[in-house]
Specification:
The protein is an alpha+beta fold. 40% of the residues lie in helices and 31% in strands. The chain has a five-stranded mixed β-sheet with strand order 1-5-4-3-2. InterPro entries: Fungal_Meroterpenoid_Isomerase, NTF2-like_dom_sf.
Amino acid sequence: MIKPLLNKIFSFYAAVTARANDDLTARRRRVAMSVIEGYNEWKIEKIMAPHAPECTHQLLPASLKYPELGYQAYKSFFSSMMPYFRNLKATVQDVFDDGTENKVVLTCLAHADTAIGPYNNEYIFMLYFDKDCHKVNKILEYVDSAYALEFFPRLRAYMSESEGQDWASRPAVSDETNLEAHV
């Protein structure tokens, strides 16, 4: 008599636990995708929306020598870069969900028009979530370091040379146009 009752209790507990885990998995994935959607909308409020106030953001690999940034520092840094990019499209290639560690890994490709020509990079985002999976507490963002080391010094040079100029009103530079005419 006790054994059947215990079996029912354990079955009920297993079902409730499985449902709760499914809810957290769905929430984690939804928030992870909102990170990419924020970049695609290209509005700083949307980009920062999934970040918890204590979120840290680290651009990697370490050989790039970017410091870990807190919420406000990342917002400021990224806001300063936004005027030099447009038509950004990030596409998720794969999603890895680790429910036991409460994190999601996204592999992505990103393309954009920039002040110095086309931008094409690969990313791996490692997203660490709060316990309820409502916000991201930590982001490790891996980029193609060879591409970053070639592209970003050129962009920084352009930024310092054209400070105060409105690049956004100029025609986009694409593969088919003469880069020299725009730089």
